[in-house]
Amino acid sequence: EKGGYEHFMLKEIFEQPNTIYDCLRGRLDANVPNIVMSGIDKYAQQIMNAPRIIIVACGTSWHAGLIAEYIIEETCRIPVEVEYASEFRYRNPVVNKGDVIIAVSQSGETADTLVAIENAKEKGAIILGIVNVVGSSIARVSHAGAYTHAGPEIGVASTKAFTAQLAVLTMVALKIGHAKGSLSIERFQALCKELADIPEKVELVLQQNEAIKALAKKYKDARDFLYLGRGYNFPVALEGALKLKEITYIHAEGYAAAEMKHGPIALVDENLPVVFVATKDAYHEKIVSNMQEIKARKGKIIAIITEGDAVIPTLADDVIAVPAADEIVAPMLSVIPLQLLAYYIGIAKDLDVDKPRNLAKSVTVE
Ligand code: M6R
């Protein structure tokens, strides 16, 4: 059942070229280009004209929501908010008729996410569910939506469901941006192609497996980790830190890289590994200068970079390179080494990576 892998987590990490492909298949045609998503198509007008979009989710799914916020705002020019379902449901939020609420959930059973959309539905919002488990409660309560088709995820730490959520949310954004005209035809075409190329590129990232295993051995005894990113990679930093906490019980924090100087930089010394998610994008120069700030304080730098980057390897202690990709789709690549790093540190510490202590696969209590 683990398909020859030692753990479900590793199997699921390695499944990602296929799960992302399955998610795009039958929906994305990069040649035309065209994106067909029947559930979303039915509500395309309402989404295009929505005064705003609110994404509700928890945990890793919330991180996918944060990336989607940046993608939707960029391509659709619709204001997006991302909320923890637990906060949203209890704080009497303003929800108006016509608002679009997107619930993101692997299990489709997370109690807080479910109640959040039930409440919003009563207030007249349109509810879209981006869910992995077919026929789950969140899928049933939603007006429409799109399944992530990642297959059963057994490992408690979400991996393949996350990249599938990103693939679906990106397709939704491109589709709406294209329909609305806020995304130029050239850009739509280019991004469809970028998306179609992702499964193959994920395959290439997975070839770094041994290098990441070696990194894990080197850093496994660190007491704390910091994960930093900017732009589309900021939520990837949050996700990397969450993976490490769950699987290795090492304290880790994710931050927007530029926030460092507003406090957390005080933590940096020669014992602190700092993971930079720093693939080539519009923020590259900025993140390089954040890296210099860490280096000046003797932090150990591990950087996820784009192949061919000549600058960061001169600054970082260790680098893992991923193939070049448009910044909008890059998180589906940059997160993979972070999943593997958490996995291999967990293994090096002899922990139960598939079933970390205190955690359940789906949180059906509030
Ligand atoms: O099933 P959901 O996507 O609604 O679950 C949300 C979170 O409970 C989940 O992502 C959790 O944070 C994972 N353990 C992360 O790896």
Tell me what the structure shows.
By secondary structure, the protein is an alpha/beta fold. Helix content is 45%, strand content 16%. It has helices spanning 8-14, 16-24, 38-42, 44-48, 59-76, 85-90, 111-122, 137-141, 160-180, 185-196, 198-206, 209-219, 234-248, 284-296, 331-348, and strands spanning 28-29, 34-35, 53-57, 80-84, 100-105, 126-131, 144-147, 224-229, 251-256, 273-277, 300-306, 318-322. Strands 4-3-5-6-7 form a five-stranded parallel beta sheet, with helices on both faces. A five-stranded parallel beta sheet has the order 9-8-10-11-12, with helices on both faces. Strands 1-2 form a two-stranded antiparallel ribbon. Helix 2 runs antiparallel to helix 11, helix 5 runs parallel beside helix 9 and helix 9 packs antiparallel against helix 10 (185-196). It is globular, with a radius of gyration of 20 Å. The two termini are 32 Å apart. 5-amino-5-deoxy-1-O-phosphono-D-mannitol binds next to helix 5. 5-amino-5-deoxy-1-O-phosphono-D-mannitol is lined by residues 58-61, 105-107, 110, 113, 156-158, 246, 359, 362-363.
Which descriptors would you attach to this protein?
five-stranded parallel β-sheet; 366 residues; 12 strands; alpha/beta; binds 5-amino-5-deoxy-1-O-phosphono-D-mannitol; 15 helices; 16% strand
Question: What gap, in angstroms, lies between the N and C termini?
Answer: 32 Å
The percent of residues in helical segments reads 40-55%
Task: State which percent range the strand residues make up.
Answer: 15-25%
Could you give the order of strands across the largest sheet?
Answer: 4-3-5-6-7
Number of DSSP helical runs: 15
- What is the overall pLDDT average? 96
Shape: globular
* Poorly predicted spans: none
Order of helices and strands: HHEEHHEHEHEHEHEHHHHEHEEHEEH
What is the count of β-strands?
12
The hetero compounds bound to this protein are: 5-amino-5-deoxy-1-O-phosphono-D-mannitol
Indicate the multimeric state: single chain
Quickly give the structural class.
alpha/beta
Radius of gyration using CA atoms only: 20 Å
The biggest beta sheet reads: 5 strands, parallel
GO molecular function, one term: carbohydrate derivative binding
EC number: 2.6.1.16
Organism: Ilyomonas limi
Catalytic activity: D-fructose 6-phosphate + L-glutamine = D-glucosamine 6-phosphate + L-glutamate
